[in-house]
């Protein structure tokens, strides 16, 4: 188990690091993103990809994706 000195030393280092970042004009934010490993995410991604694949506008959708994509060598 870490001693009290170790944890206070870590806290101090983190605090100093954050202070340096703030001095550079940065600020902390928290971002929540989907967990791509979750079964519910995988099921929803699959559901949406099937819906797109079965759409009567598939070629229009693909044409749009290709027009806004930056493919290497093109």
From TrEMBL:
Descriptive protein name: Antitoxin MazE family protein
One Pfam family of this chain: MazE-like
Taxonomic source organism: Kushneria aurantia
Lineage: Bacteria, Pseudomonadati, Pseudomonadota, Gammaproteobacteria, Oceanospirillales
